[in-house]
Predict the structure.
Amino acid sequence: MQMREMYARELGRLMERDPKILLLDADLGKASGTLGLRKQFPDRIFDCGVAEQNMASIAAGLASYGFKPWIESFAPFASRRICDQIAISICYPGLNVKILGTDPGIAAELNGATHMTMEDVGVLRSIPGIVIFEPVDEYQLQAAMPALDAYEGPVYIRMARGQQPVVFGEDYQFDLFKADCLRPGTDLTICVSGLLTRDALDAAAELEAEGISCEVINVHTIKPMDREAVVASARKTGAVLTAENHNVVGGLHAAVLEALARERIPVSAVGVEDRFGEVGKLPYLKPALGLTKEHILEAAREAVRTK
Amino acid sequence: MNANLKDVARDIRCDVIEMIGRLGVGHIGGCLSVVELISVLYFEAMRIDPKNPKMEGRDRFICSKGHAGPTVYAALAKKGYFERERLWTLNQGGTRLPSHCNMVLTPGIDMTTGSLGQGFSCAVGAALGAKLSRDGARVYTLVGDGECQEGQIWEAAMFAAAKKLDNLIGFVDANRLQIDGTVEEVNRVEPLTDKWAAFGWRVIDVPRGNDVEAVSAAVKQAQANLGSGQPTIVILRTVKGCGMKWAEDLGAANHNTAVPKEEAEAALRALREEA
């Protein structure tokens, strides 16, 4: 199932149960997969038109009134474009607004660099009080939606719209603030989020055959990161590799480095090397921007060799 | 008009001058230009309860020009939301009265503002919330004329009219000055009446925006438009620094400025003699 289909289905279920939940979008209801919900909830879904800043602050006003608004747009327009509105209208007063940013990083594919957020996590992570969540697949998203709704405060969700390689299953138990260990290991910790999670697991399987044992941790919530899990694993393996569909500046890599600053444990990175994106489909973009299983394999071997 | 409104406005003006005068620095100009409006809203127009600041269905006031916080605080203290002595803690470390409005810190403040343009959208959101709640609340909001240079104001203006938010009454503090000079010189926002009308709002232009009777009459006129399917904007032609000659004479320099103690004292003496 496409991520946006799962998102719309689960949001619809939550809206059925709780009349306080509202949805606002900025002319991207169709793109976000929620156009169908408008028929079901004609009085609770508002299209703000192409005006994301207004949308964000309107959501804050609604939240101040006791409603639970979700806002949605493409990731760049749900993060860097409305950074100040997220900071001052939403996060500073601690208002309960959920912000969905779709197609982060190279997931924006043919929309190209203007629509590719290599920096949304970096931009938002420095704002106090925000939670940043990045689902891997439809099952993780499905499990997360009730938890996101139950959490009273601002959350940014960076979600690819299309079908994602499946990592979790129907029986998955989700905790918003606990990272998931997907594979135990002893030689290297791979901290991974979102798009690269399947690649990290596949790389770990190949490395096992080479005699390198990798522990793969899915850091689905990048802020606040589950430091305990990351630090404990790093102490056990003695080396860490981060893998993310984001600039290596400011995102997961930075969060892990901050957590390990006092640990004297080497941390290497697979991610976008501080550059803008470009147009293309994933089979082109992943190698072009250094975001493949092969890049993870190479970085992992190097990390273990030099630790 | 409530016969005491003039006295209320004078008391609030005195408290604003004393708050900023004791501190020695502040947004004196834009605080004094809206004294009459804040007096009318809190002492005549709004259905609120100081003993129950979060009362359901209360009218909201969102001060999008968040730097007018001190004027709102003076009104809140006078209404009894907190003791008047607290006013003298303005901007002191650890205060609950920061220069810009904060809904978490201050009882009676309905929204955190200070980044210009945003509070107006928040007010539109609150007006939408009131409609959805069907609680009959009205939302009042205040923007500066310089603030009308923010694109977000016009995004929100468009939305409010499109969604027929007729429980929303906005005010523009048209004092014609901003930090770097006159609004006309910096980046002209006039003709404000035509702009707001073009965005689908009912417009009331008040040439004497520091005349408490004129403001009261305009607010009543705006209230008569509630439920009409159209939001209302009241353009108040005001004087930045109104009621403190020293500040008025500073012109654009009175936005956020050092206020010598003796000037504050002289202004307070003059206002009290007037009484």
About this structure: The longest helix of chain A spans residues 3-17. The CA atoms of residues 26 and 50 of chain A lie 5 Å apart.
